[in-house]
Specification:
Helix content: 25-40%
Order of helices and strands: HHEEHEHEHEEHEEE
Number of strands: 9
Low-confidence stretches: none
Structural class: alpha/beta
Strand content: 25-35%
Shape: globular
Largest sheet: 7 strands, mixed
Number of helices: 6
Bound molecules: S-adenosyl-L-homocysteine
Strand order of the largest sheet: 5-4-3-6-7-8-9
Mean pLDDT: 94
Length: 223
C-alpha cells in the first residue's frame, strides 16, 4: 500500500464494526460537526495504541500509552476539535500541547493546513513522529519541549488545543492566539476538570465551558 493518509483510512475488517458503533455514538456526546466526524472516521485509532490495546481502540475511553499517559477519549477529541471550527471559523494553523500518541494531532492535521505539536516526554514525541510520518502526514511540526508556555517561535495560532489539564487558563497560551483565535483547554484538579474554550475577542478573552472531562495533568519541564 502506498504511504499516505489513505493508509489510515483502511481499518482491519475485524475492527470495522466497533469503529462504526463508536462513530454512531459521537453525536449523542455532542460531536455533530460533519467535517470533524469525517476526520474521526478517517483516522484509525487502532494505529495509535499498543498492540495490547488494539482490540479496545474503538471504545469511547482513554487508554494507556505508556509513561503514565493516555490517548484521549474519542468523544473528547471530537469536542476539542469541533470547538475550533464552531460558528464557521476556519483555523489554518493550530498548536497542540501534549502530542502523546499523536491521535489528536492526526485528527487536527486532517482538517487544517499546519499543526504544531509539543510533547515533554522524548519517547512519546519520537514514537508519534515516526507513526505520523509513516501514515503520510506532511503538515505537522513536532517540538520536544515543555509546552506549558506554548511555542512562541511559530505564534500566533488560530487555535491551541491543550491535551493535559492546567490548574488555570494559561495566560501565555492566550497571548499566542491570533485575534479571533481559540484556546481549548481542560482546567482544574483531577476529579473536577472542565473543558474550557477561550476566544481571543476584540475586547478581551471570552470563555465558555464545553464539558466535564478527565485528563492527565499538564506538567512542567521535559524528560
Ligand atoms: N493528545 C494526546 C493526549 C496524550 S495525554 C493523545 O491523544 O494521545 C497528554 C500528553 O501531554 C502526555 O503525553 C504528556 O506527556 C503531555 N504533557 C503534559 N504536560 C506537558 C507539557 N508541559 N508540555 C508538553 N506536553 C505535555
Amino acid at each position: 500500500m502506498s504511504p499516505g493518509t489513505r493508509a489510515a483510512a483502511r481499518p482491519a475488517d475485524a475492527s470495522a464494526a466497533a469503529r462504526r458503533r463508536l462513530l454512531a455514538q459521537l453525536p449523542q456526546q455532542g460531536v455533530t460537526d460533519p467535517q470533524v466526524l469525517a476526520a474521526l472516521d478517517r483516522i484509525a485509532r487502532e494505529q495509535f495504541v499498543d498492540e495490547a490495546f488494539r482490540s479496545r481502540a474503538y471504545e469511547n475511553t482513554a487508554l494507556p500509552i505508556g509513561h503514565a499517559q493516555t490517548i484521549s477519549q474519542p468523544a473528547v477529541v471530537g469536542l476539542m476539535t469541533q470547538a475550533l471550527f464552531e460558528g464557521g471559523a476556519r483555523p489554518r494553523r493550530v498548536l497542540e500541547i501534549g502530542t502523546g500518541s499523536g491521535y489528536q494531532t492526526a485528527v487536527l492535521a486532517a482538517l487544517v493546513e499546519t499543526v504544531f505539536t509539543v510533547e515533554r516526554l522524548r519517547p512519546l514525541t519520537e514514537l508519534a513522529r515516526q507513526r505520523l510520518q509513516r501514515l503520510g502526514f506532511r503538515n505537522i511540526h513536532f517540538g520536544y519541549a515543555d509546552g506549558s508556555l506554548g511555542w512562541a517561535p511559530y505564534a500566533p495560532y488560530d487555535g491551541i488545543v491543550v491535551t493535559a489539564a492546567a490548574r488555570e487558563i494559561p495566560q501565555s497560551l492566550l497571548e499566542q492566539l491570533a485575534p479571533g483565535g481559540r484556546l481549548v483547554v481542560p482546567v482544574g484538579p483531577a476529579g473536577s476538570q472542565l473543558l474550557q474554550c477561550v476566544e481571543r475577542g476584540p475586547s478581551g478573552p471570552v470563555s465558555r465551558t464545553l464539558a466535564s472531562v478527565s485528563f492527565v495533568p499538564l506538567l512542567t519541564g521535559k524528560a
